[in-house]
Write a structure and sequence with these properties.
This protein is of the alpha/beta class. It contains six helices and five strands; from the N terminus they run ααββααββααβ. The termini are far apart.
Length: about 200
């Protein structure tokens, strides 16, 4: 297989981001596990960093970003946090959030998200999970995690065009979307004029 499913994406992106080495489909096939839990985030064959879902409705990301009060059901600062996240990912075809204490990543795709955008979202989330490690594992506040998202997205975005070229040269099909295992949902953002 020359397309990148979740497991192959973990292997390929952790290697290129950590060692600046591009693995071929043949090399990756030798590292693939026969039975791998769906959605696991794994860095170069290490123990799982966490798990992730892609193509989720926005409400799943929101529930992780700003959990509702168990008694009242109200969400504190949820809209403000989502708007800040939306501004951060305004140039991307996705929104994502990594809940470091829960070790769970949520990727919500925007309408028209391409296969390459989905791969960039997965690579970004994987790298955030790797960087978060134990540093943000307990009681992580929103601001430090948002800063981690920002720094990781900026660094990956500067490397992304080269990664895409090198992966395609190595024989990877980056135009086939293979990360979603079920039919996912999409969101649409529209710019609003300031009053």
């Amino acid at each position: 297989m020359h397309s990148l499913n979740r497991q192959r994406a973990n292997i390929v992106f952790s290697t290129i981001l950590d060692q600046d080495k591009v693995l071929t489909p043949k090399e990756v096939s030798l590292q693939e596990r026969i039975f791998e839990r769906d959605g696991v985030l794994r860095w170069q064959g290490s123990a799982p960093l966490g798990r992730a879902n892609i193509g989720l409705p926005l409400r799943h990301l929101l529930a992780s970003l700003a959990p509702a009060n168990e008694v009242t059901g109200s969400i504190r600062d949820g809209e403000a946090k989502v708007m800040r996240l939306a501004r951060l990912y305004s140039q991307e075809d996705f929104l994502l959030w990594y809940d470091a204490p829960q070790r769970v990543g949520h990727i919500t795709l925007k309408e028209g998200a391409s296969a390459k955008s989905q791969l960039k979202a997965w690579a970004t989330l994987l790298w955030i999970a790797r960087k978060a490690g134990d540093t943000h594992a307990t009681g992580a506040a929103f601001e430090p995690l948002l800063d981690l998202h920002r720094a990781t997205l900026q660094e990956l975005s500067s490397r992304w065009p080269s990664c895409v070229d090198r992966l395609q040269t190595a024989g990877w099909d980056l135009d086939t979307a293979s990360l979603e295992t079920t039919s996912g949902s999409r969101i649409r953002f529209e710019a609003q004029a300031d009053d």
